Amino acid sequence: MNRVVVGFDFSSGSAYAVDLAIDIANRWQSDIRLVYVKEKNEDEAPIRAEIERRNAGVAHLLKGIKLEYVLRQGNPADELTAQAKADNAALLIVGTHGMSGMKKGLLGRNSYRTIEQSPVPVLIVREDFNFDKALETIVVPLDNSDDTRHKVGMAATFAKTFGSTLHLVGLYTSQNHDIRRIVQNYVAMVQRYLDKLDVKYVTKFVDDVKNVTQSTIDYAHSVNADMIAIMTEQESNLSSLILGNYAQQMINQSDIPVLSVRPKQVMTDNANY
Prior knowledge:
Layout: E1 4-7, H1 12-28, E2 32-38, H2 44-57, E3 67-73, H3 76-86, E4 91-95, H4 108-117, E5 122-125, E6 137-142, H5 152-162, E7 165-171, H6 177-197, E8 200-206, H7 212-222, E9 227-231, H8 244-253, E10 258-261, H9 268-271
Helix pairs in contact: 3-4, 4-8, 7-8
């Protein structure tokens, strides 16, 4: 697969992002590009020296892949997403303190801007997440919106890579029979798609959901999840609650890594189910 791009600024959050990137890239046999976004008058020499020292320290973990870096200058979100585009990246990974110029954390407006602009799926990693095991359990919330299934292709890629189990969570946000039937139909479509790929999954329906974000996070905690896969854009119908606000809330509130996918990032063959 294509290169994995990682935002890096020496913070613990970005260091965890690099750790996860190495695990993923080794399995995908993809090279890794670290991106440090420097301030206008920041001296490059000590930055390069420290990055090279750290890269040498993890070189023994690389299994036939390269770990390279680049320094860029400008708005961190702009520069990181521009690098992902230039590298034709398969994935962009950012820690919660993952880019120079955002020392207080890549959360809120800045993280969402990165996701909005990114040409590829973005994996947001909090520095306090426990990485003592592989990505074994991935939660995939599904509502009644047209785009809700489109993240499943990328989630299935991770599941195949790690031998993970996908937890399909059908979210009933209304008692309306037609809306509930749509959710059921979408879940069934995803199940058939995963059966064809031979991806393991379990299914759970959550009823009378008032707070979609919290319901998803609560379920993820109950199964000791390692990742939550979400869409950042979905149809803005009145009965759908997984919209832009949901994505922002999920990124800001989840202590579990969040994989964010937009419809325009989805390959057509992954969406036809």
